[in-house]
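Inputs:
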Amino acid sequence: MSEVNEEERNVGLAEEKDTKTDKKIIHVMIVVSALFLSLITFLLYINLFKTEEYAQNPYNPRQWSEERHIKRGDIYDRNGVVLATSEFEKEGVQRRIYPEGNLYSHIIGYSSRVYGKSNLEMEYNSELLGKNDFSISFDNVKQGSSLNLTIDNRIQKYAREQMKGRKGAVVAMNPSTGEIIAMVSLPDYDPSSEALEEEWKNLAESEDYALLPRATQGLYAPGSTFKILTSAAVYENDLEDTVLEDTGGFEKDGIKVANYNDKVYGEMDLKQSFEVSSNQMFCELAYNMGGDTILEMAERFGINKEIKFDLKTEVSRIEYDKMYNMDAAMVGIGQGKLLVTPLQMAMIGATIANDGIMMKPYLVDSVERANGTVISETQIKSLGKVLDYDTAGFVRELMVGSVEAGTSVRASIRGIQVAGKTGTAENETNKTHSWFVGFAPAERAEICVAVILEYDGTTGGSTAAPIGGNVIKKYLESAGKN
Amino acid sequence: MKLRNGYIMPVLLMLLGALMGFGLLYMRNDYNINIIYTGLIIECLFIVVCSIVVFTRMGDKFLVLFSFMLISIGMLMICRLDIERGLKQIVWVGIGFVAFFGAYLVYYFIDIWEDYWYLYVGLSVILFVLTLTIGRTVNGSKNWIGIGSFAFQPSEIIKILYIMFLSCHYSGAWTKPIKEKITPSIMTAIVTYLFIGFLVLQRDWGTILVLFSIYIFMIYVYEKNPLFLAVNVGAALVVAFLGYKFMHHIQLRVTAWLNPWEHIEDIGYQVTQSLFAISAGGYFGKGLGNGTPYHIPEVHTDFIFSAICEEMGVFVGAAVVLLFFLLAYRCFKIALKATNPYNKSVGLGVTLMFSLQCFIIIGGVIKFIPLTGITLPFVSYGGSSMVVSFISLGIMQAISAREERGERSE
């Protein structure tokens, strides 16, 4: 009896040991499964988030192996002027040629074996290599697609000349379509491969940040050009009839904001204040409307939000955790913790010009196969209604006044009504940024321009406004003569 | 035995897939007839092996299915990279199948494996010493033995010997301490660290990782004393840390893993080229023959997975991982079902070997873990790897057959 029991117990023990081992084997199985799953997850992660970065790495030989056989597509301006083209130097080696030299370094960028690709050369790399063109593999067409830009080469060239080598940016766009007509960033550089190889170290380390595309990625205090926004808020809050005794500056909570050059204007209404760009008036109004109102208005105009564009853009921003009335007063005149890109300012001006509707900016009008058939065409797209018709009209009138009788007078053009606003923005240095934002013809605008001269130390009215006016004039003159 | 659609359909699909793959390769390679032969040989081998496995009731039917799928993906890639190598590899696949049946028969009919732990150790040590004395250095690792024009990697065989050695102890067959003092647990630890020492001399880091991980998992499953596991893991961590501090080779590998981009021209070159290839393929790949996998060093052996991802896409890459997953799952099942403790232990060891080898090399080439060069079983080019993978598979098959036929070897 006891023997049987012993045996039974032994069998029981063995079975218990077995199940215990099996349990642990199942643990191991779970760990191994987790290892396999982590491999798949990591593979998908690479494919989802890293592909772009790896594909653009200049050490990636694939970038060039494709270009051994496929001629990189050309890039044209809106009138068919060649801005970038390629030719085979010898079997399997092609050279990228930029006939306009520095002019498009911040739009088209470069395509270098050593330093990789930038700007449109990077963003549109697959199109330029014809990767989306399935006919290539069948017809043996060894040429990538070409890009047709919205840029007008004449205006681009002219705008760059007007800057006379000063640092800054000019952005010109069509307010009703969003087409970018010209976009200059200075300083620029020679994007050809030979020049890059020679100059790279200087460029990469330059104190002028020559590789920075200022128009899309430069962040600046907008100064008084921001009063365009503040005025829109004023009208929406029915404060447009405010009249104020200007005593030379705004003073509250122990903080004083003087008018430019400490000018005292005396009693004035909103229109007059906009013309002379009185800080006191706009600080006062913004202070009374409060932080939330100003912030809400700014965000309607796309601040704190990324601009979807053909090139990389920096986000224009208002950086307060909580915006108090005093912060609103500062932001109301384009100072404080507020930074914008020149492209953003051009879009704000264009929204006023386009009766309050903001259009999505774009640079690439169409992608075209080597045989001329269009593969894709950019559709004009509205980013939504920012202001209603009346508000936009009201602000436009203020801007017309600024050009006719105010600080923007040097942007005026004979026979054409121009609307505009200047800005002289204080920053961390003692040299101000000079701004101008304007459009014409005021009632039916064909072009809106934003100009900034960074750390120029001059007033927007004396330097930026004439550049803006000239660019507008040049465009309106040449528009009929394509 | 009845065959259901659930088995016939995948077999037909795989035959079709391989046929299409090799057909495409044939057309893209100036109609090189050798490619068609290679494809046909693989298909015939598979049909023959599958039939034998199914109709002679050799246990689990799915193991050959998964390994054949891996082989056909691997062969397709090897032929695409270099048809000469493809022709050599097909010979190895043939030899592999012979080894598969050989291992199956030997393991199935001989039943004295658990008594000879010292033989496995002795044989391994002889192989190690031979490698170190007459071995050849390939890519910085002295882990080849050449006999005439024929060369093989002893470390591949040692992996199996090691698993069989471990199982002697963990199956409970070997309980007698040596000279009354050294218990089998201590002895296995000593042998493990001895093997690792030899492998350090050979600079075969990948094999060290495989062996040591198998050992740790085995301890976890079988050792009753949790302290033993803790001591071993702790010792490993200390050794790894010291190795990282003082061993140049390990430092390089870690640096190349953490930031290959800064060292892209030297130590980071391999893994960055591999990442370039993987990202170039996207989800569906560039198509067989459309990529440029030649930029990756060692593309036909250690880095074959990157080439697969480039030309067949990340989805096929994930499918390869899933095939290993399935293979491991079936093997785990066999190990769980096995009633003979020795078979259970060997089954677990072989399963771990397949899984860990897959994880270590794929994890390495996608920069998930530091890269250590080992082959991807059934997929990479190389005779020793192929034959030993087949031997392991044959052993698994034998274990499963024994169980299925209800034969207990007690």
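The beta strands of chain B are 136-138, 141-147, 150-152. Flag for discussion at group meeting.
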